[in-house]
Amino acid sequence: MKVNRNYLIRAIQVVLSTIGIGVAISFLLMTNLGTDPCSTINRGISGRTGISFGTCQLLINLLLLIIVVVWDKSLLGLGTICNMVLVGYSADFTTWILGNVFGTIQLTGMLQRIIVMIFALAFFVACAGVYMNCDMGTAPYDAFCFLIHKKLCQITEKEIKFRNVRMVYDASMSLIGFLLGGKVGIVTIGMILTLGPTVDLVGSIFKKMGKYK
């Protein structure tokens, strides 16, 4: 059977980018300066219930999946499954590696934490931008935001910028995560301000390159 080269490339990008997001989250958790909005919610629930971070990631996305299936199944695909499963468990596995193979790494100084935060945040945002623009489905958490954006454009009959909707969405989710006991810090604020614009930027780059037609 002949494999579609374009599909294979996108599939590889989705798998690697979602694993990359999980690795980045693990390092962000290590800095204790906050994480992305979705992880903030999962971390809060994990702390309250004792359920692993990866399992919380999977369960929350399963709940949102029901809404997405009802509204628009076209947003689902390989990327949906990869994000639901690989992100949380990649974070758990990376944390295990750092703690059990290399020994517990202590970031004692603020400078150390900030340096790790900057690299982890940049890596996270880049990976998120790639996976969201591979056109292979997104995580229910992200798909729900795309649905909100689509509905708002239809209701207002205007072209609303996605980045604005995403920033409000992430800010709202971060507040929920905070109320659940999740850590909100400088990273969380950075995610709120950068994820939406990054998705728009990567999308425009892909379009100019003629990818995924």
Q: Please, could you describe this protein's structure?
A:
With 213 residues, this protein is mainly alpha-helical. It contains 8 helices and no strands. The protein has helices at residues 5-31, 37-49, 53-71, 78-100, 110-132, 140-156, 162-179, 186-209. Helix 2 crosses helix 3 and helix 3 runs antiparallel to helix 4. The longest helix has 27 residues, at 5-31. The model has no long low-confidence stretch (mean pLDDT 83).
Residue share in helices? Answer: over 70%
For the secondary structure, the number of strands is 0
How does the overall form come out from the CA principal axes? Answer: globular
Largest sheet: none
Rounded to an integer, what's the Rg over CA atoms? Answer: 17 Å
Order of helices and strands: HHHHHHHH
In terms of structural class, how would the helical and strand content be classed?
Answer: mainly alpha
Quote the average pLDDT: 83
Give the N-terminus to C-terminus distance in angstroms. Answer: 22 Å
Query: Total helix count?
Result: 8
| Poorly predicted residue ranges | none
Strand content: under 5%
